[in-house]
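Could someone model phosphoenolpyruvate with this protein?
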Amino acid sequence: MIVAGPCSVESREQTLATCRGLAACGCVDMIRGGVWKPRTYPSCFQGIGEIGLRWLVEAKEQTGLPFGVEVANGRHVEASLDAGADMVWIGARTTGNPFSVQEVADALRGTHALVLVKNGQMPDTALWTGAVERLSAAGIPPERLVLVHRGFSQASGGGYRNPPVWHVALEMRRRFPELKMLCDPSHICGCREGLAATAQKAADLSYDGLFMESHIRPDEALSDAGQQITPQRLGELLAGLRWRRETVDVPQFEADMERLRLEIDQIDAQLFSLLSRRMGIAENIGRIKRENDVTILQRRRWDEIVEHIVGRAGELGLSPEFIRTILDAVHMESIAHQNAVMNS
Ligand code: PEP
Ligand code: MN
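Reply:
Sure, complex below.
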């Protein structure tokens, strides 16, 4: 499923030209366009308002493509659906606000539009899950509820505007296997470079489609100019993607996969048995520390462990960041085990 369109609906001409270009791509299923824009600063373009809905309706009449808009309150929902919107989406800032999500959910009760829910700005599943629960409770069935991973606000973005946190999105898929999931490379990247690679990554992770921004004259866009691409460029990007099958019915493939997965399962079992043994030793250390009245953490010892193991990153073929993440998790669990012993 490919949803594409301008970040903001700006003028009749821009809307019609962009939508015609997207229809010409031949692989866009639905138009997106923001008419009310949740901008950080009041000095920014706040969206064209309800008149934009009329231009989207006109674009639908010309191209045959259904359309959706972002909604953040009950009035937005009513105006959009009255105008004939086929889809509404809840943006990242709104997902983070349960009052607004509830208001939108209440306004959607008894309606028939498709509802897309973007992740909130915090990299966890809680508010995203809460939004799905509120919409489900308002009677939106799973086949009309779609998740959109648009990346998360983080202090250091590593080159992304909103770095993707794939495992948070994958956890949502595990929790709600009946919901489709799209990826929004535009808001993840915040620039044109990286859009194709991010879209391909989503395809490789079995996403069901993409949600992307496209503008007939990207450099002149009134919002998110840096991340928008022309319909033609979007068509090229989409044509270059490879959507692989999640599985195939080939006996040799199945046999190879089964053998390798068995190996993985054995290694995982060993890893966790070892971790369990390590925690047992940590508890013994905790007992000795308690008897001698010393703190759980000896900073020099911890520095040595980190330096030693991170220093082996190259030899192990693992990234230093990964080693550090695992070590931190092991260390926190170890501290919890020592704490339990020391306070028993
Ligand atoms: C948008 O899709 O234009 C938008 C505002 O996105 P987000 O809510 O992901 O920031
Ligand atoms: Mn945008």
